[in-house]
Amino acid sequence: MKVAVLCSGRGSNLSALLEAKARGELPCADFRAVLSDQEGAGALDAARVRGIDALTVRSSDFKGDRPGFEKRILEALAPYSIELAVLAGFQRVLGRAFLDAFPAGVMNIHPALLPSFPGHMVWSKETDYGVKLAGATAHFVDEGVDSGPIICQGAVPVLETDGPDELSARILKVEHRIFPAAVGWVTSGRVSMKGRTSLLKGFEPKPGQAEAFLAWPALDA
Amino acid sequence: MKVAVLCSGRGSNLSALLEAKARGELPCADFRAVLSDQEGAGALDAARVRGIDALTVRSSDFKGDRPGFEKRILEALAPYSIELAVLAGFQRVLGRAFLDAFPAGVMNIHPALLPSFPGHMVWSKETDYGVKLAGATAHFVDEGVDSGPIICQGAVPVLETDGPDELSARILKVEHRIFPAAVGWVTSGRVSMKGRTSLLKGFEPKPGQAEAFLAWPALDA
Q1: Is A155's Cβ below 8 Å from some Cβ in B?
Q2: b/e per residue, B87-104, with b = 16+ CB within 10 A?
Q3: ipTM confidence
């Protein structure tokens, strides 16, 4: 499946995907292009190092013109016949025409256990709220803010000593684990939808897995 | 610490608390009274079996008169000098005067990973949304709907075969594990607040505990 990754920043989730690919874990993902809406984004270098085309469509050239911005991205990606768009730190709400341009859809990784804490500034919202479990969600993108169907979620404890930065780092590790898995499932055609619920073809929980449990504070505290 | 448990239904969380007490796990919790707002609630029998006073204040006698209902409950509990009120399936929003009547506060158990899915009918909301992780939250009660400071959270997978009933049963097991722990921490004076964040005195995560991680679907799916 031909994949484009859209980024804005240093692209650590892009790197996690490309490293998983290099380890042979994403045999069906054909990363054809990486596109950034910021000039000089670290993600572009990460792409070039792997021999993947690195494109830039500056969002600053399209202030207040979201349709024009999205159209320009689709034009830039047109030569690659992209089937799946993967957002890795590309924090923009996208329109229907853009979403419909990719036959396998658009995926995103969000640093929270959705539907808790959609949108921006998640980590300070989480530490301000005082949640004991946080995590990340890999999901399909719809026209809302982090509101599309969920593919995979991962949870971790929030420590008493965690500020937004520490929590961000802990959640980023979760993102780097679950996003490559989710991209692997989607690119290998294993994910289908039943209403808003994603189904993973061939997934039979191993003995004990369905009884998995994570509590925080630890119950023997 | 003198504790009253407020229930509406069969009181499975009450039973979990009383069983933990019987096992010696809640040495500082002195369960003095169980109060139901429904006549003949199973929770009342569970209390009587353990020799705990069982009280009823029928909510149906106070339709549209929340202050009167709460006042009547406080009057019923007055002889017991209750320090902590524990809500176990007592689904009512409470006023400031009621909350302030208990020096150690009011606790609740909610069948979701708050702030996701507050309020009623949680399980069908969760399966409709298609979350991959669900769980329960033990928290202090404020004047909002399931919006008070969190004490403990526990997460479990949501299986593809889960309807609301299956998910409810899986989450109930989490409630029965985390609520006695949280009540134990509060009654032994170990829980303090820093803003909205609860701190657990003497909790030093054991090696590896802080790296705990739960993802669903399982990443080796």
Answers
A1: yes
A2: bbbbebebeeebbebbeb
A3: 0.96
